[in-house]
Amino acid sequence: MSTPSPEHSPLCSLIDELLRPYTQSEFPLTKESEKDLLIALSQVLRQIKFWTHELDSDNDNDTMEKPADNGQFPVGSKLHYEEHHCLTKIIGDLMFLLAAESRYVQHLAGNIIVIISEFVVAMGSNWGELMHLLCLCLELAICNAYSSSFEPSTTNEIDLGCDSSSSITALKPRLKNANLSSLAGIVRVLRNILKHLKVESDGHLLKVYFGSIGSCLSNVPWDLLDSILIGQNGDVLRSSSVDALLYSNVAQPEPRITFKGNLIQFFCSLVEQSGFVEAAGGSQHKHSVIFEIHSVLPKLLAWCLDEQGDCTCIPQYFRHKILILMSRLSVQIHLECSILVSWLHLIHKHFQDLLLQPIIQLESDKDDCLEGSPFLVNVFDDGKQIFSSRHLQRLAVLFFLKSSLSLISLRERSDESGKEGSSELYEWLQGHLPVDIFADHNLYFERCVSFALSFLQLYMHEDDILFEVLLQLFCVPFFPERQVCKGRTFQEVNDNMLFLVSDVFNPISLFHLFLAEILYDHQVLLDYLISKDTGASSAEYLLRCLRIVCDSWKFFVEFSVGGEVTNQSSCKKRKVSGGVTDLKGKVSSASMEGDGIFLSPQNDCKRGHPYGCKHYRTERPPFDDAKDCLLSLKISLENLHRKNLFPYDPQVLLRRLTRFQGLCLDLKKI
């Protein structure tokens, strides 16, 4: 039997044949040569895609024989050395092109590295070595670009059977022209490889990936990037750069912006996928990556956000992605008091404007199909551009509530931390509630409910975070009996801060308001429950609400609001769900006036137009509407479950609804 050739020889031959003229250090990139290079890169990409497809579809591919011993040559053998040298040369040549002046060349070179990673996965060998080489390239690019003397990481070189010193010697000259564009390209490549692994759902590959990335991040000299990413005299980004990034399809973004954007995206993807790593038994690698990202978070904020607080000069995309990153970290990291306090300091420093933004949506706010998008721009008569920040406000307030409420939940272990959490919440509410809220005993609870309604309406437009914030509010201590601080000012009720927080975010009041906002339409609840995005969180919210409603039955039944606390309803429209034939219902509108919350049929709030509805008053106590909605939900759930049309077992929810129904029947007997 003949000795097999190194498995990457076809790659070496292909890249050497088509790209050798363009991978010489003396090669000048003219307009004509750029065109030829792009053609050659496209040919390479197509050929490797073809090979990878062949390997995926047929493991016995006649044109490319897999090596023996489960895809690995013996460490130290001649074939292993040749294979390692081949892979190093391939990555070195593509990294050289990743530093080219043409962004089109950079893009194609990066895509080729990604498809090579898929080829390596399909071959079933050398995955760890490839990841090690790519991480070395990231560290060497920083080293070469900024004349740093730090040593790249050599973690796992023994396990991988490769000599990092020889790899460094081979790769460093290929990265001598590395710059911020190169760094951005390498980060983009690493993120795209991770996206592919997510689709593959291979636990072993993810463990190796996170192991290499964790080692790399721990060795990156983040301090070295300060002077480059912040710029001179703290000048982070100017509005012209923002415009180029967000609105131009032609202009190339400033390299600093591209690198920062790619880095934030990469961190978000790493944190999001860390759960898969832990499930595959690689928790130590997961925690290493999470720890490194958390430690660099303050720097990331300083790099991406203008410390002077001039919001018009801050890319809203950065603010959006950083808030997403912080929110995901809050789920993955162990929440200690010191971490929560540091997060609160960061959000006060960089997002205070969003925390202070009014919760109530003003009549002047424009309704738009892009409402909530971090890229929506309002242009005023004087030509000044103001970014819409309702979406960012939701994210900032949600993260603020997570941090402060988590501190309150730690009160049993640290009374001081609990006080700090309640103090933070109290100060935030103080900026949004009327100063004289305690002056009138009769108006106090109405004003609490009015704020709660505005708060709920803030989140009704984004289903994916609506239930996240509602579930978070269950951390607020609940006092079934109302605590009214009659005749006092904010300064005089410091000892009763949690009473105010409890009255504002009373879970029963919020549940009543939530049902009114969806127009007491049980079909909307069904849509939430069967949605792949909100199914789990909405079911958990309903379960918790039903439990607290049944345990505090009198409060739920007697809930009402005197006076006028009207705020434009969001008129939540029902989303049409595919695959379920009997989920139909009509849309109506709800408002709060007089002695309670009234269900109001409407004439001009058509499906697809949930805003600007006229209200027609029909007086019914809130309890009656809520009861009808929940009992209708029970009937629909039972019917769907009986026909096997419900996507999961709803029996726990049905038991809670049955208990609710029993209490309603007992009420009729009185």
UniProtKB/TrEMBL annotation:
Residues 627-661 form the Protein Lines C-terminal domain. Coiled coil: none annotated. It holds the Pfam family LINES_C. Residues 396-558 form the Protein Lines N-terminal domain. This is Protein Lines C-terminal domain-containing protein. It comes from Ilex paraguariensis (yerba mate).
